[in-house]
Each structure stands twice: as structure tokens, then as C-alpha cells.
Amino acid sequence: MRQNQIGAIKNNNEKLLILKTPNHNTSNNNAKDNDLANAAEIQCPRSITDEDRSRAQMYQLLGVLLGGPPSSELLRGLASLQGDDTVLGTASKNLAALAKRTAPDDARQEYNNLFVGVGRGELLPFASYYLTGFLNEKPLADLRGDLMARGIKASDDVKEPEDHMGTLCEIMAGIITGAFECDSDLSSQKAFFDAHLAKWAALFFTDLETAQTAIFYTPVGSLGRAFMDIEADAFALQ
Q: How far apart are alpha carbons 96 and 117 in whole angstroms?
């Protein structure tokens, strides 16, 4: 049994924040794209537990925040987050407080400074870079092989390599909810996490938490680091 600590984060409706996302970066070779973008909540093709739904929503939240600057609508939603006194809950409260006073233009500039920049941003959120020091290396090739085996492919309009942290979080959300036709049970989730996230996710989110140009994204880093620690500990018990 996985230990459920995700209930530390809620919105003012006593649920985890449910997002409307502008883009969905992955699709399935043998089925129509699963449109999480316009749904009022994550639509699950298979029946899943409330805990797994919360996990998927957390992965989706991180994927959205890393995939592009937050919209005014997303900032309003984040401002309603509440939390308890756990690390995860504290990060949630800090994110809500910053979302209330962050303008979309300021968030966009911060995102660009962190991840885009002139030439490059302060951080490079790619598995290849974190694991080898270079982009487009073996971790990306291994990921592409795994995605092909699972029947998952990047959308045609995606320009970033698939080992981007935002994309990996989005893929994890899809695996948990059964959005892809590959196996979506706990062993499949663990295999993907261990292969593509376990070795660098916590380090990346720690770097984001302490990045010099981060303000709004500081608690995003805290949230991601705490969540990845929970996931790693839970998977280690399987």
C-alpha cells in the first residue's frame, strides 16, 4: 500500500487543484490524443483510486508549470491552494501566496530567465544534461526506446527533446490515469519513474528551488522536490 501524503495540498474546495492546461505534449500511436487540456478535471480512461488521481494531478501541475509560463487563469487557480504544515503543504501555501501577487508578465519573464534566456536559461531541465552534462545523450535515447515500446509518441508540434522534466511529469500523469494503451499498473509506473526520473528529479527541483532568478518558481521547486521524495520512498517499498 502506498502511503498517501498528497492530501497535504488542497484548494479552497477541499480538493487538489484541478488544472486546465494549454497544451498536451504526448499522444498515443494507436488512439486519439487524450485531451487533458480542456477538461475540468483529469479524465481517467480506467478506474483509479483517489490517491492515484491526486498523484496524477500533481504530476500534471508540475508538467504545466515547467512546460510554459503560467497564464492568468492558472495563477488565479494556484492562489486558492491551501496546505498543512508538511513540506508539501508549506510549499503549497507559499506558491499560493506568490501566485496572488505575481502578474502574468512577471511570471513569463521569470520563466524565460530560468528556462529560455539568451542562448540558454539558468537551468536546463533535461535528463540528458543532468545525467551526462550534455543534451541529447543516452538518457534521451533510452527514453525514446521506452516510449516507443509503450506506444507513446511526442506530438508533432513539440520541439523540445522528450527528456524535458515537464514532459516526463506529463507522461507520468498519463501512465497513472491510463491515458496511454501501455500498462498503467503500479509496476509500470515504478519502471518509468526509476528509469527516467529517480536519478535526477529531486536534484533538478532543488536547483529550481534555489535558482537565482526564481521567485514564483521557488515554491514550485519545493513542491516538486517534496513530491518526488514521496514518490521515490513509496516506490522503494514496492
A: 26
Closest CA to 152 of 126, 178, 127: 178
DSSP-assigned states of every residue in 137-197: SHHHHHHHHHHHHHTEEE-TT--S-TTBHHHHHHHHHHHHHT-SSS--SHHHHHHHHHHHT
Please state whether 117 falls in left (phi above 0), alpha (psi between -120 and 50) or beta.
Answer: left
Nearest CA-CA partner of 71 in 121, 47, 37, 119: 37
Which tens digits make up the pLDDT trace of 7-45?
444 444 333 333 333 333 444 433 323 332 332 245 555
Burial of 19 (0-12, 13-18, 19+ CB in 10 A): buried
CATH superfamily of 6-236: TorD-like (1.10.3480.10)
Of the candidates 21, 27, 20, 19, the one whose C-alpha atom is nearest the C-alpha of residue 158 is 27
Instruction: Give pLDDT tens digits for 81-98.
Output: 999 999 999 999 999 999
**Domain chopping of the chain, boundaries:** 6-236
Strand partners, 26: 154
Which pLDDT score, from 0 to 100, does residue 113 have? 97
How is residue 133 annotated by DSSP?
Answer: S
Closest listed residue to residue 92, CA positions, set 126, 65, 53:
65
